[in-house]
Amino acid sequence: MTKTAIIIGATGVVGSELLTLLLQSPAFCKVVAITRRKLDIKHTKLTNHVIDFDCLTNYCALFKGDVLFSCLGTTKKQAGSIAAQRKVDFDYQFIAAQMAANNAVSHYCLVSSSGANAHSISPYLKMKGELEQHIKTLGFAKVSIFQPSLLMGERSDTRLAEQIGAFVLPVITQLPFLKRYKPITGKQVAQKMCAVSLAQQQPLQYYVLDALFNA
Fold first, then answer.
1. How far apart are CA 131 and CA 56, in angstroms?
2. Does the annotation count 124 as an active-site position?
3. Does the annotation count 128 as an active-site position?
4. What is the pTM of this model?
5. What proportion of the chain, given as a percentage, has pLDDT over 70?
6. Does 213 score more than 80 pLDDT?
7. Which of 126, 128, 187, 192 is catalytic?
Protein backbone atom coordinates (compact mmCIF):
# COMPACT_ATOMS: atom_id res chain seq x y z
CA MET A 1 0.00 0.00 0.00
CA THR A 2 1.38 3.39 -0.95
CA LYS A 3 1.45 6.12 1.68
CA THR A 4 0.82 9.83 2.06
CA ALA A 5 3.66 11.78 3.65
CA ILE A 6 3.34 15.17 5.33
CA ILE A 7 6.48 17.23 5.78
CA ILE A 8 7.21 20.48 7.61
CA GLY A 9 10.62 22.07 7.26
CA ALA A 10 10.92 21.02 3.62
CA THR A 11 13.32 23.88 2.76
CA GLY A 12 15.96 23.03 5.39
CA VAL A 13 19.15 20.99 5.17
CA VAL A 14 17.40 17.72 6.05
CA GLY A 15 13.92 18.56 4.82
CA SER A 16 14.94 19.51 1.29
CA GLU A 17 16.83 16.23 0.89
CA LEU A 18 13.95 14.28 2.40
CA LEU A 19 11.43 15.92 0.07
CA THR A 20 13.44 14.76 -2.94
CA LEU A 21 13.62 11.20 -1.62
CA LEU A 22 9.92 11.03 -0.82
CA LEU A 23 9.01 12.24 -4.30
CA GLN A 24 11.28 9.59 -5.80
CA SER A 25 10.01 6.76 -3.57
CA PRO A 26 7.37 4.43 -5.02
CA ALA A 27 6.22 3.78 -1.44
CA PHE A 28 4.65 7.26 -1.29
CA CYS A 29 1.84 8.22 -3.64
CA LYS A 30 1.39 11.74 -2.25
CA VAL A 31 3.68 14.21 -0.48
CA VAL A 32 2.13 17.17 1.33
CA ALA A 33 4.68 19.91 2.02
CA ILE A 34 3.46 22.57 4.45
CA THR A 35 5.72 25.59 4.17
CA ARG A 36 6.04 29.28 4.97
CA ARG A 37 6.99 30.12 1.39
CA LYS A 38 6.22 28.51 -1.94
CA LEU A 39 8.55 25.73 -3.00
CA ASP A 40 10.50 26.11 -6.22
CA ILE A 41 9.85 22.54 -7.35
CA LYS A 42 6.81 20.93 -8.92
CA HIS A 43 5.96 17.25 -9.06
CA THR A 44 2.84 15.22 -9.79
CA LYS A 45 2.97 13.73 -6.28
CA LEU A 46 3.61 17.03 -4.52
CA THR A 47 0.99 19.24 -2.89
CA ASN A 48 2.47 22.43 -1.42
CA HIS A 49 0.40 24.40 1.08
CA VAL A 50 1.81 27.82 2.00
CA ILE A 51 0.57 28.82 5.46
CA ASP A 52 1.08 31.24 8.33
CA PHE A 53 2.65 29.14 11.07
CA ASP A 54 1.56 31.70 13.66
CA CYS A 55 -2.01 30.59 12.86
CA LEU A 56 -1.14 26.90 12.62
CA THR A 57 -4.34 25.60 14.23
CA ASN A 58 -6.34 27.05 11.33
CA TYR A 59 -4.80 24.41 9.07
CA CYS A 60 -5.62 21.24 10.99
CA ALA A 61 -7.25 19.61 7.95
CA LEU A 62 -3.92 19.67 6.08
CA PHE A 63 -2.25 17.32 8.56
CA LYS A 64 -3.79 14.12 7.25
CA GLY A 65 -1.79 11.17 5.97
CA ASP A 66 0.29 8.23 7.09
CA VAL A 67 3.58 9.78 8.21
CA LEU A 68 4.44 13.25 9.50
CA PHE A 69 8.07 14.23 9.01
CA SER A 70 9.02 17.16 11.24
CA CYS A 71 12.23 18.78 10.01
CA LEU A 72 11.46 22.32 11.10
CA GLY A 73 14.10 24.36 12.89
CA THR A 74 15.90 27.66 13.14
CA THR A 75 18.77 29.29 15.02
CA LYS A 76 18.82 31.92 17.72
CA LYS A 77 20.57 34.26 15.26
CA GLN A 78 17.90 33.78 12.59
CA ALA A 79 15.01 34.02 15.04
CA GLY A 80 16.41 36.96 17.00
CA SER A 81 16.01 35.50 20.49
CA ILE A 82 15.71 32.23 22.38
CA ALA A 83 11.96 32.88 22.80
CA ALA A 84 11.50 33.32 19.06
CA GLN A 85 13.61 30.24 18.36
CA ARG A 86 11.49 28.22 20.78
CA LYS A 87 8.36 29.23 18.86
CA VAL A 88 9.75 27.45 15.79
CA ASP A 89 11.69 24.61 17.37
CA PHE A 90 9.09 23.69 19.98
CA ASP A 91 5.70 25.39 19.60
CA TYR A 92 5.15 24.99 15.86
CA GLN A 93 6.35 21.40 15.85
CA PHE A 94 4.30 20.35 18.86
CA ILE A 95 1.11 21.96 17.56
CA ALA A 96 1.62 20.26 14.18
CA ALA A 97 2.16 16.93 15.94
CA GLN A 98 -0.98 17.39 18.02
CA MET A 99 -3.08 18.03 14.93
CA ALA A 100 -1.56 15.06 13.10
CA ALA A 101 -2.23 12.78 16.07
CA ASN A 102 -5.82 14.02 16.25
CA ASN A 103 -6.18 13.23 12.55
CA ALA A 104 -5.00 9.64 13.15
CA VAL A 105 -1.61 9.99 11.47
CA SER A 106 0.07 6.81 12.66
CA HIS A 107 3.80 7.56 12.38
CA TYR A 108 5.73 10.64 13.52
CA CYS A 109 9.37 11.24 12.52
CA LEU A 110 11.24 14.05 14.28
CA VAL A 111 14.63 15.60 13.55
CA SER A 112 15.91 16.42 17.02
CA SER A 113 19.52 16.87 18.11
CA SER A 114 22.37 14.95 19.66
CA GLY A 115 22.40 15.81 23.35
CA ALA A 116 18.70 16.74 23.51
CA ASN A 117 17.68 16.73 27.17
CA ALA A 118 14.71 18.37 28.85
CA HIS A 119 16.92 19.12 31.86
CA SER A 120 19.86 20.56 29.93
CA ILE A 121 21.30 23.96 30.87
CA SER A 122 21.51 24.70 27.14
CA PRO A 123 18.24 26.40 26.04
CA TYR A 124 18.52 24.75 22.63
CA LEU A 125 19.08 21.21 23.92
CA LYS A 126 16.45 21.77 26.60
CA MET A 127 13.74 22.71 24.08
CA LYS A 128 14.68 19.76 21.89
CA GLY A 129 14.45 17.41 24.86
CA GLU A 130 11.14 18.88 25.97
CA LEU A 131 9.71 18.41 22.48
CA GLU A 132 10.77 14.76 22.47
CA GLN A 133 9.05 14.20 25.82
CA HIS A 134 5.83 15.94 24.76
CA ILE A 135 5.63 14.07 21.45
CA LYS A 136 5.67 10.73 23.26
CA THR A 137 2.42 11.62 25.05
CA LEU A 138 0.37 12.15 21.87
CA GLY A 139 -0.56 8.55 21.12
CA PHE A 140 1.11 8.00 17.75
CA ALA A 141 1.32 4.30 16.87
CA LYS A 142 4.99 4.83 16.00
CA VAL A 143 7.46 7.59 16.89
CA SER A 144 10.95 7.89 15.38
CA ILE A 145 13.38 10.40 16.88
CA PHE A 146 16.56 11.24 14.99
CA GLN A 147 19.44 12.83 16.91
CA PRO A 148 22.14 14.01 14.49
CA SER A 149 25.08 16.17 15.54
CA LEU A 150 26.37 19.02 13.35
CA LEU A 151 24.46 18.98 10.09
CA MET A 152 26.37 19.68 6.90
CA GLY A 153 24.71 20.75 3.68
CA GLU A 154 23.65 23.72 1.62
CA ARG A 155 21.90 26.47 3.58
CA SER A 156 20.27 29.72 2.61
CA ASP A 157 22.19 31.47 5.39
CA THR A 158 25.88 31.48 6.26
CA ARG A 159 26.89 30.23 9.69
CA LEU A 160 30.58 30.80 10.37
CA ALA A 161 30.72 28.54 13.42
CA GLU A 162 29.20 25.67 11.47
CA GLN A 163 31.56 26.21 8.55
CA ILE A 164 34.51 25.99 10.93
CA GLY A 165 32.98 22.98 12.66
CA ALA A 166 32.43 21.19 9.38
CA PHE A 167 36.15 21.58 8.63
CA VAL A 168 37.58 20.79 12.07
CA LEU A 169 35.18 18.22 13.54
CA PRO A 170 35.73 15.42 10.99
CA VAL A 171 39.38 15.41 12.08
CA ILE A 172 39.09 15.65 15.86
CA THR A 173 36.10 13.31 16.09
CA GLN A 174 38.30 10.40 15.10
CA LEU A 175 39.09 10.31 18.82
CA PRO A 176 36.82 7.69 20.47
CA PHE A 177 35.40 10.03 23.13
CA LEU A 178 34.44 12.63 20.51
CA LYS A 179 32.76 10.35 17.97
CA ARG A 180 29.28 11.41 19.09
CA TYR A 181 30.01 14.89 17.64
CA LYS A 182 30.96 13.64 14.17
CA PRO A 183 29.27 15.81 11.51
CA ILE A 184 26.64 14.28 9.26
CA THR A 185 25.05 15.46 6.03
CA GLY A 186 21.41 16.35 5.68
CA LYS A 187 21.15 13.71 2.96
CA GLN A 188 22.36 10.97 5.31
CA VAL A 189 19.71 11.88 7.87
CA ALA A 190 17.02 12.09 5.17
CA GLN A 191 17.96 8.67 3.81
CA LYS A 192 17.61 7.15 7.25
CA MET A 193 14.28 8.89 7.86
CA CYS A 194 12.86 7.61 4.59
CA ALA A 195 14.01 4.05 5.31
CA VAL A 196 12.73 4.11 8.88
CA SER A 197 9.31 5.39 7.81
CA LEU A 198 8.86 2.16 5.88
CA ALA A 199 10.57 -0.33 8.18
CA GLN A 200 10.21 0.59 11.86
CA GLN A 201 8.01 -1.79 13.84
CA GLN A 202 8.64 -0.58 17.40
CA PRO A 203 6.31 2.03 18.94
CA LEU A 204 9.28 4.25 19.86
CA GLN A 205 12.78 4.27 18.44
CA TYR A 206 15.71 6.67 18.79
CA TYR A 207 18.28 6.92 16.02
CA VAL A 208 21.57 8.31 17.27
CA LEU A 209 24.65 9.19 15.29
CA ASP A 210 26.06 5.69 14.62
CA ALA A 211 22.67 4.50 13.38
CA LEU A 212 22.34 7.51 11.08
CA PHE A 213 25.74 6.97 9.48
CA ASN A 214 24.77 3.36 8.80
CA ALA A 215 21.71 4.43 6.80
1. 17
2. yes
3. yes
4. 0.86
5. 84
6. no
7. 128
